[in-house]
Amino acid sequence: MFGKGGLTMTNYLVSDLDHTLLNERGALSPVTQAAVAAVADRVMLASARHPGQMTVLIDQLGLTGPQVALNGALIFAGASGETLRAQPIDDRDAQAVVELVAERFGEVNFTWMDAAAWHVSFVDAAVEFDQCLVPVPLAMDGLKPAGALMLLMIVSDPGMFQTLGQLLKSAFPKLTISPAGDGYLTITAPGVDKGRAVDYLVSTGISRAKVVAVGDDENDLPLLNRAGHAAAVGNAASVVKQRAQVLLPTNEEDGVATLIKSWSSI
Fold this sequence. Notes:
Blueprint (H helix, E strand, L loop, with lengths): L11 E4 L1 H5 L8 H9 L4 E3 L9 H7 L4 E4 L4 E4 L5 E4 L4 H14 L6 E3 L4 E2 L5 H9 L4 E2 L10 E5 L3 H14 L4 E4 L4 E5 L6 H9 L7 E5 L5 H6 L2 E4 L5 H6 L2 E2 L7 H10 L2
Parallel strand pairs: 1-2, 1-12, 7-8, 12-13, 13-14
Antiparallel strand pairs: 3-4, 4-5, 6-7, 6-9, 9-11, 10-11
Helix pairs in contact: 2-10
């Protein structure tokens, strides 16, 4: 599937969750669940989600190795939840972002996450929706970030989303500012992105050439860029498809399972 040599049972898979491993209902299909569970000792999830929003999926898949949450800001043990690496945003930078957003976009619900909770300014429809899917502890101190691993704003209006993103990238060029799909705008510390998933595996002795990364959105590009092999599901954004070496079926068509089966049969 990846040209000469293909993939083998020694490869290590790093996969995005939403719209990649999960279907459009935010769930694992039976086919994908079975395929991932069969190689669970060589699978890492790399998501913008809070770790508490990943736990059920980790358990369903039987994953015990390191997992990546909050767009690379947190790496934790799948079995125990123990923090392996964490890179918070400088409190002064986080507060400066709060003040700018409050001044220019006062209606935006400014939120941030650490390993323990989701800190929100107020509970709106977007927060309620996410909490209905996978609840995590909430704290009502969104305007006072301290030790934040990831700042998160959910903006449903496309025009406002684009304007806000451009403003923040201009004002804070050193911070990592990424759209994560579905109107989610995330901010992490300088140099912190999903590519840290690959860097962590390499630090444990796994060859970069053995790492296979799969994603669908712009925040997955650092992951694909650092892996030895890059794949995109068929529903991926065009910029992700352009970067990928292999185009898989869509998430609704169990694209990641197709990839796993291609090397499991070798």
